[in-house]
Amino acid sequence: MNVHEYQAKELLKEHGIAIPAGHAALTVEEAVEGAKKLPGPLYVVKAQIHAGGRGKGKFKELPEDAKGGVRLAFSLDEVESHAKEMLGNTLVTIQTGDAGKQVNRLYVTDGVDIESEYYLAMLVDRATGRVAMVASTEGGMDIEDVAHETPEKITTITIDPAQGFMPHHARSVAFALGLSGDLNKQCQKLAKQLYDAFTASDCDMLEINPLVETKPDADGNASLLVLDTKMSFDSNALYRHPAIEAMRDETEEDPAEVEASEYDLAYIKLDGNIGCMVNGAGLAMATMDIIKLNGAFPANFLDVGGGATTEKVTAAFKIILKDPAVEGILVNIFGGIMKCDIIANGVVQAAKDVNLQVPLVVRLEGTNVEAGKEILANSGLAIVPADDLGDAARKIVAEVKKAA
User: Fold this and answer.
1) In 201-300, where does DSSP find H-type helix?
2) Known binding site for Mg(2+): residues?
3) Binding site as annotated, residues for substrate
4) C-alpha distance from residue 202 to each of 16, 192, 233, 247 (Å)
5) Is 259 annotated as catalytic?
6) How confident is the model at residue 139 (pLDDT cuts 50, 70, 90)?
7) Which one from 119, 195, 263, 267 is the annotated catalytic residue?
8) Cα dist. 364→112, 266, 313, 314, 339 in Å?
9) In 10 A of CB 42, how many CB atoms?
10) By the 8 A CB rule, do 319 and 342 touch?
């Protein structure tokens, strides 16, 4: 599960991490009122969507030369103007795809005099089974280019969860960022705070970009501030964090994915034209692979799980068909805990309920397979049976081409 920037910063603040003052806003009026509570005279108005690259993003409804989703404002009037342009419009970034995301929330923060920008992130490294802390001196909007063109400027420090975060990890992070003196000490403290926040919240990813060094004040002192952050959480652990779960913004998610979660279905929309309904994540991935091997592309990942009811299967079928890009459906079921006759009843019921108009290929194997096949054969529907996974993929691709 993802959260907005302002929500992530509030979570970091609970761990003593320094962030600029700011206020979330749902309306233009709230944005202006939030700015009035800040010292000024420099403000930053930031679009809140679940995607990176907002600063370089473009609004569909605005002229090509309009500013992106992160803007400086030097007066309350400018805050108001930026808020009016952003709210309700669609921001397209490198991470949203061409469809973009509608901006429904803003975050107005205090401006910061920046001396240097850095990149600092934490994630779960599945290759090592450890938490990885990633640091770079090249923070800012072009970090993706750094990763591709100059990867040597990125340092990765892995942390054994059995050992936990140690002082040498903190020193390694500060060294990777090239910090010395008091800033080095601040960075070591920050690295430990971030690790604590990451593990305490069951994070999947915590990204600070940029982490900034402020210009020295009158006494010559500079500080490290978290200027922007993204956090995502392990959905399977949210039951331990009701306060974080309450931060979920369903308007940022695909409606079909939201509906699927209500039925405890694992559904992710993809860009292809063949809908997939499978039981088991591994079998689902194999099904998508073999569809691509046969020259087509899957429209979704959908795992109905091992104990689905007829009602749950019917709901899954309907969710697939809500995608207008779907030109055919492949149902691939291996019945262990799941019984093939239950799947067959669900498929028949859903096909009748939605008046199915696209080709449907069904491959069943396992518990009660003969009963399942008999239900499909006697349904009166144009369901194409398949003997195995390879046969099923070839048949659905052929059926879709025939119907085109």
Assistant:
1) 242-245, 255-262, 281-293
2) 209, 228
3) 279, 336-338
4) 18, 16, 6, 15
5) no
6) confident
7) 119
8) 61, 20, 14, 16, 10
9) 15
10) no
- Cα–Cα dist 110/93, whole Å: 24
The β-bridge relationship of strands 300-303 and 266-269 is antiparallel
pLDDT tens column, 43-100: 999 999 999 889 889 999 888 888 899 999 999 999 999 999 999 999 999 888 888 9
Cα 35 → chain centroid: 29
Rounded mean pLDDT of 354-371? 89
Burial 43-69 (b: 16+ CB within 10 A, else e): bbbbbbbbbbbbbebbbeeeeeeebbb
The 10 Å CB-count burial string (b at 16+, else e) for 357-391 is ebbbbbbbbbbbbeebbebbeebeeebbebeebee
In the chain, the amino acid numbered 53 is: G
Q: Can you list the domains of the chain with their CATH numbers?
A: 21-110 (3.30.1490.20), 114-245 (3.30.470.20), 254-403 (3.40.50.261)
Known binding-site residues equal: 46, 53-55, 112, 117, 209, 228, 279, 336-338
- Give residue 141's pLDDT: 62
Predicted confidence at residue 49, as pLDDT, reads: 95
Return the structure tokens found at 279: 């039981």
Structure confidence at residue 308 (pLDDT): 64
The pLDDT of residue 57: 92
Task: Identify the active-site residue in 5, 107, 118, 207.
Answer: 207
pTM over 0.85: no
**Shortest CA distance to 45 belongs to which of 5, 97, 2, 7?**
5
What does the pLDDT average to over 132-136?
Answer: 94
pLDDT of res. 223: 94
Decide if 6 is catalytic.
no
- Identity of residue 74: F
Interatomic CA distance for residues 260 and 312, integer angstroms: 9
Q: 323 — phi, psi (to 5°)? A: -80, 115
pLDDT at residue 307 in the model: 67
Q: At what angle do helices 167-176 and 181-200 cross, to 10 degrees?
A: 120
In this model, does residue 148 exceed pLDDT 80? Answer: no
Do residues 119 and 155 make contact, with C-beta atoms less than 8 angstroms apart?
no
Read off the pLDDT band of 280 (50, 70, 90): confident
